[in-house]
Structures are given as structure tokens and as C-alpha cells.
Amino acid sequence: MSQLSNQIAVVTGAGRGIGRAIALKFAAEGADVACVSRTAENSEKVANEVRALGRKAWAHAVDVSDSASVNTAAEKILAECGKVDILVNNAGVTRDGLLMRMADADWDTVLNTNLKGAFLVTKAFSRAMLKARSGRVINIASVIGLMGNAGQCNYAASKAGLIGFTMSAAREFGSRGITVNAIAPGFIETDMTAELKPELKEALVKQIPLGTLGQVEDIAHAALYLAAASGRYVTGQVLTVDGGMVM
User: 204 or 65: which carries more pLDDT confidence?
Assistant: First the structure.
């Protein structure tokens, strides 16, 4: 039997990379998926891939840093789907640069998307989940939020904040049967890492005990574990999927 039969999942940042992999993994396990991305083109593309797996899908172009955009989309999704069982806050951006040279706008863009976005989306769906007395919230953080990284003060702050947000929300929602967890990916093969210079990628791999970059499917499997019955008694946790980088 499929692990997510009759479940409705909302995945932000579903247009590519980790978000796309999670959306497709959930669909393969029986979930219908609302695919949220910044652009209509990307969200619709992944929604069509979900449909090709025989599941229902909805596509929404949303700026997760904008409360009006988020609330409008949440109302539409709840009207279309009737409920939301699983929420994955995956939308994220980077604007790297050394602290002393970082523009205010680059700090704001990253914090507003990566951290405020998760707050707005979780808040928008929380009432329905609390009323149903069940639900799974999965926040995609990063090992950078645990260990920091030169040139990524804004990104590290956003992901560290997301981890604190995860633990606090888990305490608030636990009495209503809702779990809230974070996944902290290490260096994963995505569009972002594909842009790295070969020598930098080689240096990164040397920091990983398993000796290789991760795949988006590795994160999708972790998300499935937390979303399915297997994650029933897990909440307020940070699951690092990083090949051993921060052990």
C-alpha cells in the first residue's frame, strides 16, 4: 500500500531541485500535491509531472515572502483540496557575499524568503491543521544553519532561524497531533552546486566522510520518512542528510 494514500501535500519551492524531488516522491507514494513556485511556468511543469504519475496536482505561483500572496494561495488550495495533511517549506534563495560588503537588500531577500516565507506559509495553513488535529510540517533547513559558512551570513542566519522556528512550532502544535521537523541537507547535486567551479566542488567533497555529494532523492526519502506513518512520533527534530559533514 502507498505510504501517503489519500494525503494532500503542499510543497513550496517545488519548481526544481529538492522541492521537485519531494513533490514527485510524495506523488509516487499516493499523495496529491499542490506545487508552489515563484513562477507559474515552473509550478505547472512539476504539477504536470505529478499528474503523469496518476495523482491530482495544483500549480500556484507564489512569492512566499509576501503575506497577501501566501494567504490568497492558501485559501485557493484549501478550497480546491479540502484539506492539507503535509506542508513542506522548501522555498529558498541565496545572495552570497562577505558580511562587510553585503547589501541590505541581499540580507532582506534571503531572510524574507527562507525564514519569513516559512512563517507565513505555516501560519496560513495552521488553522486548518489545528482544526483537523493532525498534520506534518517539514522545513528544509541546511547544514549551513548548524555550522555556518564564510560568505553566507544571511543564508546561515535564515536556516538557523528556521531550525529555531521548527522547534518552537513543534511545541505549539504537538498537543493537536501535528509534527514539525526540519531536514538539514548537506551539499546536494542541484542547479546551485552545478555552478560551482570544479576545484571548489572537489574541496567540498573532501569535507564529506562518505566522499560524494548527495542527491535530491536523498532529501526526498528523508521527507517521506517524516511525512509517512514512520514519522508519527518524531517532532521538533533536525534530521541532517549530509554524508556525515556535521557528525
Answer: 65
Return mean pLDDT, the chain: 96
pTM greater than 0.85? yes
Catalytic residue among 26, 58, 119, 155: 155
In angstroms, rounded to a whole number, what is the distance separating the alpha carbons of residues 153 and 135? 32
Partners of 58 in the β-ladder:
34
Flag whether 159 is in a domain. yes
Domain count, the chain: 1
Identify the H or E element spanning 136: strand 135-140
User: Both ends of the chain: CA-CA distance in Å?
Assistant: 34
CB 21 within 8 A of CB 33: no
Q: Residue 17's domain is classified under what CATH number?
A: 3.40.50.720
Answer yes or no: 155 catalytic: yes
The three-state secondary structure class of 29 is coil
CA 204 – CA 196 distance, rounded (Å): 10
The domain of 159 spans 8-239
Cβ neighbourhood burial of 246 (10 Å; 0-12, 13-18, 19+): middle
pLDDT in tens, 13-53: 999 999 999 999 999 999 999 999 999 999 999 999 999 99
